[in-house]
């Protein structure tokens, strides 16, 4: 054991995980006494505030754990860690406890499977022998890494108060049994770590890989405002294991006035934990610079992912806040890579897909597969769809519109409505002699049928070279004669850019899942699959300019069934 000066925290615990944090699911399961202040405060993320001068029925208020006086033995608190892991040290904080701080503490640990240990459990073993504490101070202690544990017991001699108790270590990675499962390789429960950031002025980088979407801006990564032209900030994520990547999610939840303007992603394969020595040319661009929006989950298909990577760098322009980064992929086969020891000091935990930390998806491709390109069907957002067209939808929070500085939003209908003005404009470039006219049509669509693996082949693409084209879902029209319209359901949007040969560029093929509350507008000339609905019949209104009478100027069609391997859409849920 060694007591560490506060200024050495970054090099001692900077790349470890706070295993006890409530953000990971840490919790108090038993306590000997909490008369003056409840033990749950120990695990809170935020630093302990001063409550000086505030009193309750039992006396002065404290943000921490405080027990009665005159204990003849000691007080104790049993904590379940957010996940199993190896413990490397502690931050024991007595902030604002002065004259009533705990004089001494020790820490015990246990790995308890399918049971909750009690105070007298015979399997507790000591990992921090009795040490002295002072008033109103943080105390850092580093210990030799333990074996894997999931409970710790904080012993306080004889009584008193502690503000915060943080247990630092490395997660036992949770990996799926099946090698072809796609899951979040960057997630903290997969052994992911944030190993380096350019700036974390308002929110630390380690928040990026936490479970869930958090509760406010305080549990994301946020950098200070930049004033220099061309500025950018970045964070480097070490994946839980080397893997073949599929898609990523950039979540800006709660960041509405301070989300980044745009971001890009790069990846590398490095032996070191912190790839500081990797030159810029050693990083591969896997997501070109892409616009971001406020308060939403952006999902992006990744490029250049035909080889395994160990690290991902997210760069934001020019600054701002991101809540979470998810990097989905499948592990590199273990016979060609054995990098798990660089992630954790213990063996990864292999689990069935029923207990994975993120929704599992069957992999899109294996070495022996004859499948063509695989398209993960991603949630439709305005930013993800921007290279191909526009998304038409209302927003519950008007501050969450894609372009908050430019979108005009007004009240309407005597205060009963909100109007989002001109989210898309009609376009037409037909020759004047074509006599094309704008109009609204309705497509009544039936559900597509997936194959036995839950995938769907893209067999045809079309484009409209002289007009853009909008589709607005109208619910299940078959029900409208007898009942109210059922506005539920989803539909699939498959798009591609035009290639140099004036045919679809299949490298740019993307798939999105749209909800019944989202309309889309295909830009003029964008290749797309005819409308495909997923959850039962759906009517879609189509707004377009056309000549009609099956005129070839209206629509060009390319049949892909002659391709050696048809592109396959893979659904994520």
Automatic annotation (TrEMBL):
Known partners and oligomeric status: Homodimer.
Species this protein is from: Somion occarium
Family, as annotated: Belongs to the allantoicase family.
Keyword check for Lyase: yes
Coiled coil ranges: none
Keywords: Lyase, Purine metabolism
Keyword Lyase: yes
Protein name, per record: Allantoicase domain-containing protein
Name of one Pfam family that matches: Allantoicase
InterPro entries assigned to the protein according to its UniProt record, in alphabetical order: Allantoicase, Allantoicase_dom, Galactose-bd-like_sf, RmlC_Cupin_sf, UAH_cupin, Ureidogly_lyase, Ureidoglycolate_lyase_dom_sf
Signal peptide positions on this chain: none
CDD domains per record: cupin_UAH
Catalytic activity: (S)-ureidoglycolate = urea + glyoxylate
Domain named Allantoicase: residues: 25-171, 191-331
